[in-house]
Every structure is written in C-alpha cells, then in structure tokens.
Amino acid sequence: MFAAAGEAAAAQREFIEALKRATLGVEKKRLARLLDEFLDERGNTFLSEPEAWRWGAVGSIWPEGRPWLAAAGRRGPAAAERHTALPWVALNEKQGARLHDFFAALPEWSPGAPLPGAVNYLVGNALKIWHELNSGAARVEMSIERKKVAFEARARDALVNLVAGTVGAELGRSLERTRGLFAARRGDEVNYHAAVRRAGRLTLADVLRLLLPGTEEQVRALSSGVGEGRRAAVDPLTARREV
Length: 243
Known about the structure:
This protein has helices at 2-5, 9-22, 31-41, 43-48, 58-61, 67-70, 75-85, 93-105, 117-128, 130-133, 153-197, 204-211, 216-223, 228-234, 236-242, and strands at residues 139-144, 147-152. It is mainly α and 243 residues long. Among the domains are: 67-172, no CATH class; 202-243, no CATH class. Strands 1-2 form a two-stranded antiparallel ribbon. A hairpin with a 2-residue loop joins strand 1 (139-144) and strand 2 (147-152).
C-alpha cells in the first residue's frame, strides 16, 4: 500500500499507530480481515475527498493558522518554568499532591496516548478558564482540589504555554496520523484499481459513485482518467439532467 502511494516511513508508522488504537482490546486472528475492515470503514471518506491537501493539512483546516501547533515545542521549558513559578507555600496538602502528581506524570506522556489522569485534570481546569488566562490580567485564579489558587503573571504565562504545548503536540500527532491514514487508503485504492476495476470487476458501490455527480478528482479516483464520457454512456439520463 505504501509503495503504491509513494509515502515515507513516517506515514507508515502513523498508520500502524492508528490501526493499533482503533483495534485496542479487540481480538483479531486474521490480519487481512482486520486491515480490510479498518480501510473499508474509511473508504467512502477517501473516495469523497481524494485530494491529499485535505488530509491533515493545517492550511485547509485552519486557513488563518493555529497558534496551538506553534506552542508544541514549548511544553518542556514551560513545565520547568511552571514548577518554579508556582506559589507552593500557599497550597494546601491536597493541592500540592495534585501538582506533584502532574509534574511526575507529564514526562511519561507522549502525543497520541491518553492523557494521564493528573495531567488531564490540570489541563481540563485550565481550559475552563482559558479566556481569563489569556486576558493579560496580572493575577488569575484557578480551581485545584475545589479551592481557588491565585497565579501571578509568571505562573500564569507558564501555564498557558504548558497547556497550549500539550494541546499543540496532540494536534500535531493527529495531523500526522491523518496523513498516514490517507497514504494507506490511497495505496490501497491504487492496488484495488489495478487488480479489480481495470479488469472490469466493478462493485455496486463503484458503479454508484461513477454515476453520481462529483469532482474530476473523485471520478479519476475511480476511473483513472475515464471521466464524464464514460458516465454519460452508462447513464445518459443523468448526463442530460446535468446538461
């Protein structure tokens, strides 16, 4: 599949990770059946949107840019700054334990994996007051263990960079995973077309898609260059209605 798509090893790795996550806890004994089911579930999406630039492309998802992605590399430095800037002496025992658990769990997390409970707790609470954190206020309060904790400018900025970096890292991984899925689906489609469609063994789904109005990219994905002329020959009534 990947040889047909001409994709690099990074796309292969991301596809494998997506496949593992999608089938986690599911008992499967036959790899071919597992791959068929995984790819078939996403087949209609690929045939509806066969253009590579629509899959995992920041510009097509967020035309005005996405600052979260730029913050992904600041996660490590922001964590160190946050630890130093926290008002530790003002925290009660439960709050201190919660934050210690957060800093202990954060280095163990990697994008694509579920957030550890201690990390998810702090990130979730920060997102609840995200507007206040980005308002530029000199002092912001956030709830930790059901009590408010005041953060001065330094601790606030470090928290913003830390949360944005965590979210940005996850978004970046998701984009790469989407590109890997597209590469696998495109390679599968190239192989399927060569083995099945070129031999005239169209499925009902193939015929329906050829008859439906669509973009030239969609038609080419199925007919490999045989465009509206073939569709008109198969269904002249559809062709007349379009004219």
